Amino acid sequence: MFPSGADTGHDASGVSGTVLMPTRFVWPYGGRRVFVSGTFNRWSEPIAMSPMEGCPTVFQVIYSLTPGYHQFKFLVDGEWRHDEHQPVATGSYGVVNTIFLAREPDMVPAIFSPETPGRANMDVDGDPFLRLEALPRISEADIEISRNRVSVFLSRHTAYELLPESGKVIALDVNLPVKQAFHILYEQGIPVAPLWDICKGHFVGVLSALDFILILRELGNHGSNLTEEELETHTILAWKEGKINLNRQIDGNVGSYPRHLIQGGPYDSLKDVAIKILQNKVATVPIIHSSSQDGSYPQLLHLASLSGILKCICRHFRHSPSSLPILQQPICSLPLGTWVPRIGESNGQAFAMLRSNASLSAALSLLVQAEVSSIPIVDENDSLLDIYCRSDITALAKDRAYAQIRLEEMSIQQALQLGQDASSPYGFFNGQRCQMCLRSDPLHKVMERLANPGVRRLVIVEAGSKRVEGIISLSDVFRFLLG
Asked: Which ranges in 221-331 belong to alpha helices (H)?
């Protein structure tokens, strides 16, 4: 498995000590199985590389190196190769790639800064090899400076700036049968819709995927008063009126679910809208404009979300990244996200993951009880296979699939296959369901990705194995930014 004449002695850098610098290796020229090996692992067992998300011809892995000079080669489908576009050297075992990492005490890695010329923040890493810049650990003062500047920006801009130049906003009549309403959500590929009460002349609430989950759980409850036949004619209004009692039966906590419409106006500050979303634990806030002082003749302008507000932040600070010191910091160095507790940690926050053979009933219960919007689906090694989101439940609205299944008998894998067989585009972004990032990714890269429509969370995985290390959501980012 070694290149001809490989030196299996000590590391060529000759550096002693325990300072390690996470370094990304990238092979962008395709292949079925790709490995990397070099002086840093004494040319021993090659290190497996994995295809990048959304770019299967580009392989990558992150490996911690000591500072100093290193040589390495790639093993592509059983053949040793080097990258001709990167620094090379000729030795006793042929042409190899080289890298030099300077020793920097108390440094943390960061990938290209946002102002790097000719590089789009959201692009897949196309550079064959990324040299890591060393950044000093950020101080609490710099974090507070960044938070203050974000707060000032959000306070000075309004929800009116979120309105697109063109588009549509779908609202549902409260007298629609719930079965028909969820079919509309599924067909339109949207997770939520505001509710209009024609008798009151007002928007009175929203219908979301969480409602469908609660309804299906109620149908699966043998003591339920709601039958499948009644679901065909049961109106949204009737469901909403009985929802509070159902909430008490589920977890005794009606405070988790808003009892009235959480809304905003076009001239509310972006900060106020973001705080409303966070405090009320909702995905969207309808932006409603009333042409009269008594609130009559309301116009539904937009559904504001954290991703839309985050896009405004990214757009504003993209051209002056130095004004936000936190942007270049790796997410692992910042207090945000939920991480899988490490062995021996007793104070780690609980992290919800499920195997693909777990029942759909177990997944829905976890979504409700843990108050999360998605659950990573992993294999026996905790490597990411897929992700189950609240919005995936609307796939059961197709052809009344909910009437033919039993939640405790259908596995998550079967439920996901049902959704993938469907034509609804919701839940997909650039053809990818699972949006991932690495612990070494800088905050600006994570923010840019979360600012895209349909992406509400990124699963933090280990390079190579895709072992789940944590999850970072839109809410996590805003709680961090707003302090």
From this structure: 228-233, 236-251, 270-280, 306-317
